[in-house]
Each structure stands twice: as structure tokens, then as C-alpha cells.
Amino acid sequence: MMERQRLPPWHERQRLPNGRELLIRPIRPEDAEPLRAGFPLLQPEEVRQRFAYTMGELTPELAQRFTRVSPRSEFALVAAEPLPPGEALIGAVARVAVDANERDGEFAILVSSHIANMGVGRYLMTRLVKWARSRRLQQLYGEVLESNEAMIALAQSLGFTREAAKTPGLVRMTLDLRELH
After folding, report:
1. Which residues pair with 26 in a beta bridge?
2. How many angstroms separate the CA atoms of 75 and 108, rounded?
3. 3-state SS track over 48-76
4. What share of residues in the chain are helix, strand, coil (percent, to 5)?
5. Which of 3, 73, 124, 157 minimizes the number of CB atoms within 10 Å of its CB?
6. Is the dihedral of CA 161, 164, 148, 44 positive or negative?
7. Crossing angle of helices 120-134/149-157, nearest 10°?
8. Which of 13, 6, 29 is nearest to 79 (CA)?
């Protein structure tokens, strides 16, 4: 009889439709360099859709900021090769940052075109919602470029509503979590 390997909390193996296996896990400080190394593989439009502007590189400071989350107010997952942190190529990052009011959380997701359209973004978003619910947040929201039709459609398919954002060119996607508790 084979013994099944137990994974730590928030760690899950996922097989993509193309047969490739990913490990979904919390981001770690060791992921800073792989994030920086993989950043040039992103298309300029992918970067613009996540950050609302283009940038040629991920600075060491920004990579450190992204990989050192505060467990009290942030949650971040990566979809990576099933290798140890620091060695694995990262194909997607998803995060929630809890607002100062401690009732709402802002999400952000970036999925590389190399694994886009395979359900990774949807899966990561469902994990963010699960975490937000476990923290008893009232609302999960994200500012999305109006042109990012894929993210808007994904969010709406999961029950998010589309609202006007304060910044031109952006829409605010909001999920009321109070209905889900």
C-alpha cells in the first residue's frame, strides 16, 4: 500500500489540463529571486493588467516586499513547479491585503500566459475567497483594468459585482462575504 504524502496547510498539488503539475502554496521569502528571474518572461500586457502600468523588471526591494507577508494582514499564494522554494519557477501569484479597517481585503492575481486559460486564476481566486471567509472579512475587492476582460469575467463568475472605480480606466470587482458566512 502506498503512503499518501500529507502536505502542510494551504499546500495543494494541481494537475493542469496539459498534464503539467503545479504546487499551490503560500509564498515564501525564498521566492524573491525566482520571482525576479521569471519577471522578464511575462508579457508587457500581463504586467500592465496586474500593476496598471508596465515595468521592465521586478526590483529586489519589490520582490522582497511581495514575498515577506505579514500573517496578520496578508495572505499570498504562488502556483509553482513542485520544487523547493527558491528553486521553483513561479507561474502565478495571488494575494489578499486586509484593509486598515480589518473588515475588507483587496485581492490581486497575476497568472503568466504560460499557464493562462487552464483554471489556475479561478482556483487561486477561490483560495483567496476561502482565506477571506476564514478571517471573517466582510468584503473582498480588487481594482481591475477595464480592458482586463478575462479577470472581470472570472470575478463575475464567482459572484463578484462590477462597480465604478475612483480611477479612470479601472473597475472595482467586489464580493460581499457577509452573505457567505
Report:
1. 77
2. 11
3. HHHHCCCCCCCCHHHHHHHHCCCCCCEEE
4. 30, 30, 40
5. 3
6. negative
7. 50
8. 13
